[in-house]
Amino acid sequence: MINLLIVLFGVTMLYMASSSRIMAQINMLKIQGVLLCLITLISHSEANILGVLFLLAETFAAKAVLIPWFLTKVAVKNNIKRDSNPQFPNFYTLVIATFILFAGFLIASIHSDYLVNISNMYFGISIATIITSFLFIAIKKKLITHIIGFAMLENGIFLLSLSVAKEMPWIVNIGVLLDVFIAVFILGLLVGEIGSIYENPEVGQLCNLKDFEGEEHE
Amino acid sequence: MNSYFLLDGLNIFFTLILFFVTAAVTIYQGKKDFKYYIIFLLFVLSMLGAMWSNHLGLTWVFVEATTLTSAYLILKHNDKNSLEATWKYVFLCSIGISLAFVGIILLLIASEGVNSLFFTDLYRNAHLINPFWLKLSFIFTLIGFGTKVGLAPVHSWLPDAHAEAPSPISAMLSATLLNSAFLVIIRLNKLMQFAGVGESAKKLMLIMGFLSLFVTAVYLFRIANYKRMLAYSSIENMGIITIGVAFGGFGTVAAAIHLAAHSLIKSSFFLTSGSVLKLYNTKEIAEVHGIIERDKLTGWLWVICGALIVAIPPSPLFISELLIILQMFINKHFWLLALFTILLTVIMYGIIRAVIKTAFGKDLTPPETKIKLGVTKYLPQIILIGITVLLGLYCPQEIWTLIIGAAIWM
After folding, report:
1. Nearest residue of B to residue A150 by CA position?
2. Which of B:11-40 have CB within 8 Å of A?
3. What whole-number distance in Å separates Cα of residue B100 and Cα of residue B91?
4. DSSP letter string over B18-65?
5. Minimum Cα–Cα distance from B133: chain A residue
6. Does the CB of B223 have a partner CB in chain A at under 8 Å?
7. Using CA atoms, how far apart are residues A175 and B60, in angstroms rounded to an integer?
């Protein structure tokens, strides 16, 4: 069951890498949030029921509801529908992401002395997600897709933290989720502010600050 | 039962620096609105949390909180450039800190026998930690927290944010924020030493330290903006401190001296740059002439800060750099020693050239009405510089105890 959920998580990552529609990417973030919640629910063996419930509620609230809701709001407000001209065609991104996912499965199938303390499947897929989210951030042009990439990176790291048999104290988990949420919130607000200066905020426009006079940026 | 917060020789030292710089900056910036001060205090509080935390996970939470709280302070001008700087700052630091979290998870995997992220537990049971995973974890945490410290090659947010933030905030970023993130690197380096893989940590830290010096030397050679110059100088000094910690021995004492002196000098330099900006309304070095003629005290503060930051005696930075050179000599790293001195000389040339060009000579564009600065625009820098010069000339036993107390933990 858990393996199925993790594989589904990997598939959402592939879909995100290949899609250029912002709303589709945000919907995938929602699905990832729900999947992470289910994985946490099934895999947790901690005696502290209250702590687990709290973590579940917070993961669901932050990852499946609040962050996607806020990103939708930013996208609608700034009238951003798709990242139509990425630096790289979407098809190639899909091919590369597929290879990364495949490498993730390979890692998952390794039986090494070094990998005794972790669940292989979690480890492989989460590493694949983290690498794909970096690829995602590097090739997309719109600022909002960069935030979506950041949220995806955080989801990958969350999955990685579940791969370890031991858990973080709940106070740390809460702090981490809160920080991530506020980071997305501030970045979303900045997209709005930058959108009021540039009509269609893209990373290429953020190159005013430079060291030497006369230096040209693409 | 471990405590989440703990005071030791190291973080008391960092806290004292934070206290002095925050006090000076508060006097300098004077009256601001209520919301500003609330966020400013939250920023200071998150740095304190990061310094005092005894749990690596909690430290991460506080370090990320410093990014989030300072974002508003950098954005204060709310123009095109500060928006760009804030975006880069929040985005790059958040990504960097996320990598550090990956490192923390890898440390959890490494410390199977310890089952705790409390520094006290990790140090006590360092021999139980798996060296392979620990080394992997250190790479991620060094790059992650190194982003926040502004070590090359992950420094690119730093010049933009320092240059575009209001000058008092630039002073806080450079003199306190970088330290609070660096404290985590020091603690993890110590863990690597206890676990018997200190050599790997040393190599990585030396690479990042020397890269920082190299990047600064290249950019400072023909820098056009004086606030960016100060920002690059922060990258350089954090690089020097990293090199000191990596070498160990006298290097750690040097790192402690350098850390304190850099914070005091750089914060007064940034505060003075705020006064220069007020007097000239430009950050371009080419457009600023004769600061001494326009405002004598600001001009001389500018010159003294410039001289102290490039380690001209009686700057304590002279002593710390000499100690690092001595340690390199003892370790017989002659090539590194040569590289270190050459890079420092290039950086010294870049800064001194800019300071002389802007401070001396005739004021080519005198304003119609003379701008008068209040006493609070001079006093904090005079006090900070006074303390620094005094410490450079004579260091009382109590201060030595503090420095050695911090160096032992490095």
Report:
1. B95
2. none
3. 14
4. HHHHHHHHHHHH----HHHHHHHHHHHHHHHHHHHB-BHHHHHHHHHH
5. A114
6. yes
7. 9
Q: Rounded to 5 degrees, what angle do the CA atoms B143, B144, B147 make? A: 80
pLDDT in tens, A84-103: 666 677 788 888 889 998 88
**10-residue mean pLDDT series, chain B (410 residues):** 86 94 92 88 95 92 91 82 89 92 89 84 90 93 95 92 93 94 95 93 95 94 90 95 94 95 95 93 90 92 95 93 95 94 95 93 80 88 94 91 91
Does B84 touch chain A if contact means CB atoms closer than 8 Å?
yes
Of B55, B85, B94, the CB nearest to A183: B94
Strand partners, B284: B225
Which residue does chain A place closest to B57, by CA atoms? A172
Alpha carbon separation from B342 to B45, B214, B320 (Å, rounded): 39, 10, 17
- Prediction ipTM score: 0.89
A160, A176, A194: residue with CB nearest B61: A176
Q: A189 CA to chain B: closest CA distance, Å?
A: 10
Which residues make beta-bridge pairs with A90? none
